[in-house]
């Protein structure tokens, strides 16, 4: 996927979405450097905003992050509208969060989006439910750029951050700057295939591409039930 350029835009909108507790807020805070600050979580609004500098020429990104309201889908139009970059997040140890990526993806008007990331978070947890090659395969099928990382330990984070900053620079750059960067396409993200991983986590036999009826069910309660079940089995 080539990065579509915005003309001289200085502030752009990044939307981070995915199921609750997959690490969206942790990722956002690591991006803007506030991860370890005492900043209090504002739970009174439906959306949190995290901003950070993207270029020396006052290019700025604002991340739109749901403040724990992931189960209510009524916000979606405003939330996704005019997003320049979209980041969808799942947690590698929690299969339903991977399944639901399809549902998050379906809320987006992809034509308007300059770049789409799929992040497999929490790779510090060794008990994986989704292999790396599956994540890559899915990302590929949707034209997304895949990274896996741990927002908690920082493992793999730099690679994603650098790609995001590079994208941001292109989005905010002028036409002259563009000539140098015009060759920027996806690089090596799809090449590496993971080693064998033993599945211990909860794992039903379906993938995000065929799960529409599953995500249409009342989600939160169902997920909680599944979660309890998994913990009991372990
Ligand atoms: N082990 C592990 N835990 C994480 C990671 N990222 C976030 N968490 C934890 O997962 C929980 C939910 O994270 P949060 O960022 O609030 O998720 P959100 O609901 O998607 O915004 C918190 O307890 C985080 O500390 C990670 O990479 N690894
Ligand atoms: Mg959050």
Your description of this structure?
This protein is of the alpha/beta class and 234 residues long. It has 2 domains: 11-203, P-loop containing nucleotide triphosphate hydrolases (Rossmann fold, 3-Layer(aba) Sandwich), CATH 3.40.50; 210-234. Helix content is 34%, strand content 17%. The protein contains 9 helices and 6 strands. It has helices spanning 24-32, 76-80, 95-99, 101-106, 132-142, 157-172, 175-181, 212-216, 219-233, and strands at 11-17, 47-53, 60-66, 85-91, 115-121, 145-148. A 6-stranded mixed β-sheet has the order 2-3-1-4-5-6, sandwiched between helices. The chain starts with 10 loop residues before the first strand and ends with a helix. Residues 24-25, 65, 68 line the site of magnesium ion.
Record keyword descriptors for this entry.
234 residues; alpha/beta; Rossmann fold; six-stranded mixed beta sheet; 6 strands; 34% helix; disordered C terminus; binds magnesium ion
Short note summarizing the structure:
The protein has 234 residues and is α/β, with parallel strands linked by helices. The chain is built from 9 helices and 6 strands, in the order βαββαβααβαβαααα.
Secondary structure topology:
Layout: E1 11-17, H1 24-32, E2 47-53, E3 60-66, H2 76-80, E4 85-91, H3 95-99, H4 101-106, E5 115-121, H5 132-142, E6 145-148, H6 157-172, H7 175-181, H8 212-216, H9 219-233
Parallel strand pairs: 1-3, 1-4, 4-5, 5-6
Antiparallel strand pairs: 2-3
Cofactors, ions and other ligands in the entry: guanosine-5'-diphosphate, magnesium ion
Order of helices and strands: EHEEHEHHEHEHHHH
Q: What fraction of residues sit in β-strands?
A: 15-25%
In terms of per-residue confidence, which ranges show pLDDT below 50 for 5 or more consecutive residues?
Answer: 179-207, 209-234
* CATH class categorisation of the largest domain: Alpha Beta
CATH architecture type of the largest domain: 3-Layer(aba) Sandwich
In CATH terms, the superfamily of the largest domain is P-loop containing nucleotide triphosphate hydrolases
Q: How many separate domains? A: 2
Provide the spatial order of strands within the biggest beta sheet. Answer: 2-3-1-4-5-6
Q: Nearest-angstrom radius of gyration?
A: 18 Å
**What integer is the average pLDDT?**
76
Tally of helical runs: 9
Number of strands: 6
Helix/strand/pairing category: alpha/beta
Oligomer: single chain
Shape: globular
Helix content: 25-40%
Examine the coordinates and then state which fold CATH places here, giving the name of the CATH topology of the largest domain: Rossmann fold
From the N-terminal CA to the C-terminal CA, the straight-line distance is 40 Å
Largest sheet: 6 strands, mixed
């Amino acid at each position: 996927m080539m990065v579509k350029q915005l003309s001289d835009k200085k502030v752009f909108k990044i939307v981070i979405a995915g199921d609750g507790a997959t690490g969206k807020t942790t990722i956002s805070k690591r991006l803007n450097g506030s991860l370890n600050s005492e900043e209090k979580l504002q739970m009174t609004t439906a959306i949190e905003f995290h901003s950070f500098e993207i270029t020396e020429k006052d290019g700025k990104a604002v991340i739109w992050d749901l403040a724990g309201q992931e189960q209510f889908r009524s916000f979606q139009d405003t939330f996704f509208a005019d997003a320049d970059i979209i980041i969808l997040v799942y947690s590698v140890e929690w299969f339903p969060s991977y399944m639901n990526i399809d549902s998050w993806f379906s809320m987006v008007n992809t034509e308007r989006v300059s770049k789409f990331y799929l992040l497999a978070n929490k790779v510090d947890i060794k008990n994986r439910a989704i292999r790396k090659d599956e994540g890559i395969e899915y990302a590929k099928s949707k034209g997304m750029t895949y990274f896996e990382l741990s927002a908690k330990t920082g493992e793999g984070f730099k690679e994603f951050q650098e790609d995001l900053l590079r994208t941001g620079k292109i989005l905010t750059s002028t036409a002259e700057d563009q000539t140098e960067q015009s060759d920027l396409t996806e690089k090596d993200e799809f090449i590496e295939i993971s080693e064998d991983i033993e599945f211990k986590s909860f794992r039903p036999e379906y993938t995000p591409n065929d799960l529409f009826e599953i995500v249409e069910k009342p989600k939160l309660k169902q997920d909680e039930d599944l979660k309890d079940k998994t913990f009991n089995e372990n």
